Amino acid sequence: MVKIKPRHDRTAPRGWFSLFWAAGGLIAMIGGVFLLGATYFSVSNYAKAALFDANGIAATATATERRIRRDPDPEDSDDYYVTFAYDAAGEPVVIERKVTRSFYHDAVQGTQYSIRYLPQSPRVMEYYVGEMRDKARGTQIFALVAGVLALAGLWYFGRRANSAILTRKYGYKTTARISDFVERKRSGRRTGRGYMIFHTEDGLRGESLDHSIGTLRALGSGSEVIVYVRKGTVWWEGDVGPRRLDRSRVPKVE
Q1: How far apart are CA 83 and CA 159, in angstroms?
Q2: How many CA atoms lie within 13 A of 131 on its CB side?
Q3: What are residue 153's phi and psi, to 5 degrees?
Q4: In this predicted model, what pLDDT tens digit does every residue of 31-56 receive, in sequence order?
Q5: N or C: which end of the chain has fewer CB within 10 A?
Q6: Closest CA to 128 of 88, 87, 84
Q7: Which position has the higher pLDDT, 75 or 89?
Q8: Residue 117: which residues within 8 A CB-CB, separation 6 or more?
Q9: Buried b (16+ CB within 10 A) or exposed e, 136-152
Q10: Angle 131-170/26-55 helices, nearest 10 degrees?
Q11: How far is CA 146 from each of CA 8, 23, 101, 161, 189, rounded to the nearest angstrom?
């Protein structure tokens, strides 16, 4: 029986969703949000493409100006804009549109392009015929990728949460010795968050979930912590919480 004092503040078993979230489930949720957003924009763009196909009026537009909006962050891309001038049923229209980099480089002043605009809204235009349908396809592909990532994240992090609960419930309780602490970094900078690595007496290796690195280091390298082991998987009690009605945690009344 494990007799060392628990070195954490958990007094009850941790629930599945809490473990799923702590194990990285936020990534799966973000993927789901991107899936919903991309699906919405894909459907919207397909509707606009159908509107252009049914009602769009062909016209010739002339590139009059172009500019680049530089992004201060070197890791982000710049934005490219071209100003178009065209005649919409006798009404002159001048409008600036965000375009691709390749289109920008070709759009020297005076270059003419075949466009389409909507008769009820002459300033709503495709700077090339089929632009909206291409956008719809692009967002559809993005939605597919986001959906795959969301499902993969749900499976992976859900599997970790399942493992944690099953190990706590059916595994055996023992101790492990802390061997190292690893701080997470983002873009080369320390985040203040990290995990600890520990090993049981029979050589099984385990890692904690992410915590404040200062809180983990306060446990001390080489010290022992309570863990649960099942099928070669090791979970720290400070992550999963103690078993329900764990008599070893209840003081005896003399």
Answers
A1: 52
A2: 17
A3: -65, -40
A4: 899 999 999 999 999 999 999 999 99
A5: C
A6: 84
A7: 89
A8: 56, 57, 59, 86, 88, 93, 123, 124, 125, 126
A9: beebbebbeebbebbee
A10: 160
A11: 37, 20, 25, 22, 27
Order the strands of the 91-99 sheet from edge to edge: 91-99, 79-88, 57-69, 112-118, 121-126
> What is the 3 state secondary structure string of the chain?
CCCCCCCCCCCCCCCHHHHHHHHHHHHHHHHHHHHHHHHHHHHHHHHHHHHHHHHCEEEEEEEEEEEEECCCCCCCCCEEEEEEEEEECCEEEEEEEEECHHHHHHCCCCCEEEEEEECCEEEEEECCCCHHHHHHHHHHHHHHHHHHHHHHHHHHHHHHHHHHHHHHHHCEEEEEEEEEEEEEEECCEEEEEEEEEEEECCCCEEECCCEEHHHHHCCCCCCEEEEEEECCEEEEHHHHCCCCCCHHHCCCCC
Sign of CA dihedral 124, 126, 131, 133: positive
Per-residue pLDDT of 199-224, as tens digits, reads 999 999 999 999 999 999 999 999 99
Please name the residue that has the structure tokens 């001390």.
220
Which one-letter amino acid corresponds to residue 201?
E
Which pair of structure tokens corresponds to residue 145?
């990728």
Spatial CB neighbours of 215, under 8 Å, sequence gap ≥ 6: none
The whole-angstrom separation of Cα 238 and Cα 219 is 11
The b/e string for 25-53 (b: 16+ C-beta within 10 A; e otherwise) is bebbeebbebbeebbebbeebbebbeebe
